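Continued from yesterday's entry.
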Amino acid sequence: MGRGSYLAADWAALRTSNRLSVNHTPVQIFDSKSANDGNKTNLIRIRESRDNADSPKSTPVIIGFDVTASMGYLAKEIATNSLNRMITTILDNKAVRDPQVLCAAIGDVKSDKYPLQVTQFESDIRMVRQLMSLCLEGGGGGNGGESYNLVWYFASRHTKTDCFEKRNEKGILFTIGDDKCHADLSRTEIFYAFADNVPYTLSNEELIREVSQKYDIFHLYIENDTASDKEVYRYWNDMLPGRAAPINRKDIGLLANLIVAIMLVNSGKTHNEALQGMDQNIAERIARSLSFIEIKKAASNTISF
């Protein structure tokens, strides 16, 4: 998959439809009552990101977001604003070459009927249309974590990309949510989510090492101005040092700006360079978040405007 180019007119036409109104609730935008078979990871063998005439040097980008409990607002933000802004900003800033985007709805493999749903890798407005086909189960178990590690497993073992296979280059993978991650994936959980038989439980550390061969992985954790924010921060800082950053729920509308800034830093830009092209107010609001990202050690990495 991944054919086509992203046109502003296509987004504008979709944006004005009743389906994608910012006045609608997440349930109205994501109106599927159950997961589509085409999005269920236990029925999907491979998702492919391939070069083509429109994307001669394709870069796979995976955006996985928490859809448990009250996190429907995050799915709505991605559908009505962030995904379009991210793509247009990537294309304007050349943050990555020829992006092909796959979206993943993350639940809880310990309690949910649909612990992971994924779209195809797409380069055009189909990425938004497919995003809207996902089901917001709204589950989660209140058990101290969610299953962000499902995305790592899927990306590692169920995606094939020309970026890696032809050029030995990595794609980019983001997970987004407000909780910690369960410590591992058991054999039973892997079979339930993917219909895969594996010989033993996979720890998060093992999953991260494995998926990092094909993708640069990051996590954005959402701060809710509660006492648990510091605990979640410490957890992700230990799990993905230099590759986890906070974003306050009040700033969720700037999610796309932060994602693109991280991509630019990942491509070798300094923090300053990643922020300089933005509106100054936006740059100032995401500067703290970006400061948590440390891809390369440098003598000085201060931020100025």
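--- second protein ---
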Amino acid sequence: MNRRTFAQSLGSAGLLGAASMLASSQTSLAAVQQNPSPNISEKRLFPPALPPALKSGMKVGIPAPASGVAKEDFEKKVKAFATALESIGLVPVLAKSLVTTNSYLAAPDEVRAQEFMEFVKNPDIGAIICVRGGYGVMRILPMIDFAALQQNPKLISGFSDHTALVNTIYQRCNLVAFHGPMAAAEFDDFTRQWFLPLVYPELTKQAKYEAISYTDATKLTTIAPGKARGRIVGGNLTMITALMGTPYDINTEGAILFLEDVGEAAYKIDRMLTQMWLAGKLQSCAGIVLGQFTEGKDAGYATTVEETLRSRLAPLKIPVLGNFPLGHVREKFTMPIGVLAELDADNKKFTLLEPSVKY
């Protein structure tokens, strides 16, 4: 599906009318070097299992596997998200342990894991959208019954701290999971535009899947040129490095890896990327997509995050596309973990080649 057709289909569905977000002007940056290893993109192309698509009347569980929300955010953001789900025919079901006041965790580990697994095992719950990130998913990974999830596949979405959850679901269950919306995050028109057509074909009136492409020549940047295909993995850079050396380490071989972070100084981004490079994680990718890196204070050093990203990634000689709309920003593209994608850094284009849900 090309950009014009895709935007028109959303407009006809009365959802977004956001065609203007897909700019068509051309911008090119200096090329570095073509990918010298074209065969790397042929690895890991076996298809994963797909969760059922969203359907009208489906119940959507909203748990807190990591941090909870303040009472004010619950009243303002979570209830607004629940209303948004209801407006498109879905039924939100809130977990008990969402509001927290004096801890960075929504509830004790056992409680958070139990509430998440209750949604997984409940046949009346068709999808799970986590309430927020923060911290805590790593603590409950050993408590999650991934075999039960494999037997009860359902759509699971979250980002930030949930990088650990959605990537582990793909690797342990061979099931697509979503680096996408959360209940306490902004569910604006752009975010809907790049989420609902992936997961709710009934709403967007799609009888079958057509490849979805995102391109914006005015904003996306070519860090290193080339084209590659691979299955999508990745998420928050801090979480990915925190998982290294554990049983939940993310496999990047032959993958399209995407990375983002928030509030980290340039030298910290450098340190984490260098750690991944020393571990062979970056060299084994087919290509890399960089989301937003909200820059933190860097003790007066002049080096920027953008300079760090270029210096660490351009020499890899694989395609690298920068400034992609994902991460800790209002307008977010949903990345379906495990889906085959094509990265065209030369033309600043990213394409989802396969469906993310069962039609």
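DSSP finds twelve helices and 14 strands in the chain. The domain at 3-46+207-352 is CATH 3.50.30.60 (Glucose Oxidase; domain 1). Will compare against the first tomorrow.
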